[in-house]
């Protein structure tokens, strides 16, 4: 029976590995966004007029991205804790001869729901990043025939 419990625990552990990879990606993105925010904060005082407005707009986008990444990371960590709880419940059930499979299944479903929510936030963050990378029309000089 212990072998069967170990087999049951493998699926949640693979989900944990995936979460770790996603957290790694989010951490790298957060580092880059924080570096960009510091650069923009330095430019903030040195700009005026339209350029200043563009800096402020980008600072707002960066602030939103930082918030989304932070929320996604919190959700993933909470999801990871639920996965860990699920695995622990499976082993407690096996060792203590309790009936906890329903609770373990609930913990797993909660973990998957939290992970999906985190992925939606990650998607939103990437959408904001892509939108802010669009080159302003002034730089494209679309009125000129080249």
Could you explain the architecture of this structure?
The longest helix has 48 residues, at 49-96. With 146 residues, the chain is mainly α. It contains 4 helices and no strands. Helix 1 (2-46) packs antiparallel against helix 2 (49-96) and helix 2 packs antiparallel against helix 3 (101-132). The chain has one domain. The mean pLDDT is 91.
Count, helices = 4
Overall mean confidence score, pLDDT: 91
Structural class: mainly alpha
N-to-C SSE series?
Answer: HHHH
Portion of residues in beta strands equals under 5%
Give the % helix: over 70%
Strand element count: 0
**What is the overall shape?**
elongated
Unreliable segments (pLDDT under 50, ≥5 consecutive)? none
Count of structural domains: 1
Topology:
Layout lengths: L1 H45 L2 H48 L4 H32 L4 H4 L6
Helix pairs in contact: 1-2, 2-3
From the structure above, extract its key features.
4 helices, 146 residues, mainly alpha
Quickly describe the structure.
88% of the residues lie in helices and 0% in strands.
């Amino acid at each position: 029976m212990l072998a069967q419990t170990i087999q049951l625990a493998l699926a949640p552990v693979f989900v944990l590995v995936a979460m770790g990879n996603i957290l790694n990606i989010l951490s790298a993105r957060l580092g880059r966004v924080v570096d960009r925010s510091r650069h923009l904060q330095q430019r903030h005082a040195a700009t005026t007029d339209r350029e200043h407005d563009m800096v402020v707009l980008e600072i707002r986008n960066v602030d939103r991205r930082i918030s989304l990444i932070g929320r996604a990371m919190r959700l993933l960590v909470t999801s990871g804790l639920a996965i860990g709880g699920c695995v622990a419940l499976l082993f407690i059930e096996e060792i203590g001869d309790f009936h906890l499979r329903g609770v373990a299944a609930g913990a797993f479903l909660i973990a998957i729901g939290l992970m999906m929510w985190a992925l939606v936030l990650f998607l939103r963050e990437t959408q904001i990043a892509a939108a802010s990378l669009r080159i302003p029309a002034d730089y494209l000089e679309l009125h000129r025939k080249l």
